[in-house]
């Protein structure tokens, strides 16, 4: 695929770092992922390949669990070269992020097919110049599911349920369309909010639900697959520009091998996580998805047309629903 760039935000970050330390030999890799998630194992593979391929000249330090700040803050750090690489569900540009509209994409291959379109190449070209962040690659994630403090057997069980939501409008609108009461909240606050009953549930891929121990304060995980969204692996353009061609190719190779590790681990890990949920006493349910797809159609149509225009939205929808690979 023709790899291009993504938007870095201009939000200030509370993380204090010395820009002078951000030399070409040091790569700080920030991510939401924690031990126990396939994506964290993929980040370790990235580190392994980069360090081995450079004979130790390039060192990679992984900061999991959003230690370096929110996704928006880490994007800003990439542009400042205080962080060099990040993996996040937030690419910082809505034209790409909104590929995560509910039930729009079937999987990572569909995302890649859309991002190969000429329009998508232009998004990335424009943004590398404007925001100084480059899309390096992707890490696959499992679809997002809904957990709650009560059993969810059908869409009707979501009515009035107070669910934590990321702050982006498509999450809020999607959960509202399903009958829930979305409550935007930072990821770092979710466990305590569930524990205290501030919210009744939340949504995330099952590997994140497990790694963040949300299962400890929930009674059910409903497998509704309502959003399919990969993680975006991004590199700061100031850092990238300082790298010789061989090192750039090494980072591309490391990303490809990391993605392969993520793909290999994800399916068996998902089965293991579901078994752990059941062993921990959680109900794992499989509601009929047809009502979920129907209920969120207005969200897809409204935001998809707004972001891409009617014609491109129709093309994206067609690609998103293909069975690829």
Key phrases:
globular, 325 residues, 4-stranded mixed β-sheet, disordered N terminus, 5-stranded mixed β-sheet, single chain, D-Maltodextrin-Binding Protein, domain 2, alpha/beta, 13 helices
Describe the fold and architecture:
The chain has helices spanning 38-53, 71-80, 94-97, 108-115, 118-131, 169-177, 190-196, 206-211, 237-242, 245-279, 290-295, 297-308, 310-320, and strands at 26-31, 59-63, 85-88, 133-139, 144-148, 162-165, 181-184, 201-205, 220-227, 231-236, 283-285. By secondary structure, it is an alpha/beta fold. The strands form 3 sheets. Strands 2-1-3-10-4 form a 5-stranded mixed beta sheet. A 4-stranded mixed beta sheet has the order 8-5-9-11. It has a two-stranded parallel sheet with strand order 6-7. Helix 1 (38-53) runs antiparallel to helix 10 (245-279), helix 6 (169-177) packs antiparallel against helix 12 and helix 12 (297-308) packs across helix 13.
Write the layout of secondary structure elements.
Blueprint lengths: L25 E6 L6 H16 L5 E5 L7 H10 L4 E4 L5 H4 L10 H8 L2 H14 L1 E7 L4 E5 L13 E4 L3 H9 L3 E4 L5 H7 L4 E5 H6 L8 E8 L3 E6 H6 L2 H35 L3 E3 L4 H6 L1 H12 L1 H11 L5
Helix pairs in contact: 1-10, 6-12, 12-13
């Amino acid at each position: 695929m023709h790899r291009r760039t993504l938007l870095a935000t201009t939000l200030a970050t509370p993380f204090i770092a010395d820009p002078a330390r951000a030399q070409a030999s040091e790569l700080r890799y920030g991510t939401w992922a924690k031990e126990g998630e396939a994506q964290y194992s993929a980040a370790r593979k990235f580190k392994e390949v980069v360090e081995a391929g450079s004979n130790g000249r390039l060192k990679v330090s992984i900061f999991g669990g959003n230690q370096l700040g929110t996704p928006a803050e880490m994007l800003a750090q990439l542009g400042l070269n205080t962080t060099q690489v990040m993996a996040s569900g937030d690419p910082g540009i809505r034209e790409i992020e909104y590929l995560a509209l509910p039930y729009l994409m079937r999987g990572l291959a569909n995302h890649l097919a859309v991002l190969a379109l000429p329009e998508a190449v232009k998004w990335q070209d424009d943004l590398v110049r404007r925001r100084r962040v480059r899309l390096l690659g992707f890490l696959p994630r499992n679809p997002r599911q809904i957990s709650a403090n009560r059993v969810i057997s059908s869409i009707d069980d979501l009515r009035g349920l107070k669910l934590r939501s990321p702050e982006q409008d498509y999450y809020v609108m999607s959960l509202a369309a399903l009958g829930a009461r979305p409550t935007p909240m930072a990821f770092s606050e979710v466990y305590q909010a569930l524990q205290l009953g501030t919210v009744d549930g939340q949504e995330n891929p099952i590997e994140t639900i497990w790694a963040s121990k949300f299962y400890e304060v929930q009674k059910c995980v409903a497998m509704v697959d309502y959003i399919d969204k990969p993680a975006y692996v991004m590199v700061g353009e100031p850092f990238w520009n300082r790298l010789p061609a061989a090192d750039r190719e090494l980072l591309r190779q490391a990303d490809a091998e990391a993605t392969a590790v993520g793909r290999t681990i994800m399916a068996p890990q998902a089965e293991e996580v579901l078994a752990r949920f059941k062993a921990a006493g959680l109900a794992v349910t499989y509601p009929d998805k047809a009502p979920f797809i129907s209920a969120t159609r207005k969200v897809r149509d409204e935001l998809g047309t707004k972001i891409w225009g009617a014609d491109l939205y129709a093309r994206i929808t067609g690609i998103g629903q293909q069975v690829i690979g």
